Amino acid sequence: xxxxxxxxxxxxxxxxxxxxxxxxxxxxxxxxxxxxxxxxxxxxxxxxxxxxxxxxxxxxxxxxxxxxxxxxxxxxxxxxxxxxxxxxxxxxxxxxxxxxxxxxxxxxxxxxxxxxxxxxxxxxxxxxxxxxxxxxxxxxxxxxxxxxxxxxxxxxxxxxxxxxxxxxxxxxxxxxxxxxxxxxxxxxxxxxxxxxxxxxxxxxxxxxxxxxxxxxxxxxxxxxxxxxxxxxxxxxxxxxxxxxxxxxxxxxxxxxxxxxxxxxxxxxxxxxxxxxxxxxxxxxxxxxxxxxxxxxxxxxxxxxxxxxxxxxxxxxxxxxxxxxxxxxxxxxxxxxxxxxxxx
Length: 343
Fold this sequence. Notes:
It is a multi-pass membrane protein. The chain has 343 residues and is mainly α. It has 14 helices and no strands. It has helices spanning 5-38, 46-51, 54-93, 105-118, 128-148, 154-177, 182-192, 201-220, 222-228, 232-237, 242-264, 270-278, 286-308, 319-342. The longest helix is centred in the N-terminal third of the chain and has 40 residues, at 54-93.
């Protein structure tokens, strides 16, 4: 098949633009990661830290390695998982409003963690809370396939996801309503608001393998998603197996988002906002969009986590509140522009 010179030039421009955007995002993530290590209620100056000695140096190293480093690593991984999952789901479902919460995976992971709080198990073992979230995400994928079937259409998948999302939300509300004590209810509410505070390297070691495995599966779907953007019939003619592609994207999303929610709580809108901001910069190519969305998601969550540490009031803002304050107006703008384009 012969490609016209205009199309070839357009593809070349999109490729160069993707490289430039990628390099810019890598630089931004590096800067934000370093800022996340140094900014907080006890500011650390790197040069002063290197020149410190004795007990003062030990305290500073403890703040840096035991408190700031796990938080920065989780911000990087959680943001990348959410941004990448959103881009992959929008490509698979060909729905600009798709995000990890649409299939009920985020809500189910949150329900798994809430169940741990409800039965008072969170304090018995430090790893049981993230394990509860992972189990909730795994069960949601099994239920999703049981409801929709392996070869389900896109519409059936969305409807099954909406039903699963509603069920998980209802059970979470029931757990709040029947919480054994006001303290337990408060713990659940705070956790649902999302945060990376007070996380340790244990959470990083537990969740990182699942998040990285999920992201590898999602990145592997890039070529097939690019073919699917031309339509299901064209994708099949190009050799794409749609059942395998759905399994790859949904399984990857469950691993990445389930692990992310299990250690950070509910952080919304990252998977919706980031792909929309980056898509026009890469020529609307799903294959190029995936890695850039991972970088963009990491930058957004790192920036939001730095923002919650700024002294606004007596209490630290919750990360999920900040992302919602950014994402909700963007969502309304997206709905408005989509409605105008459909007229």
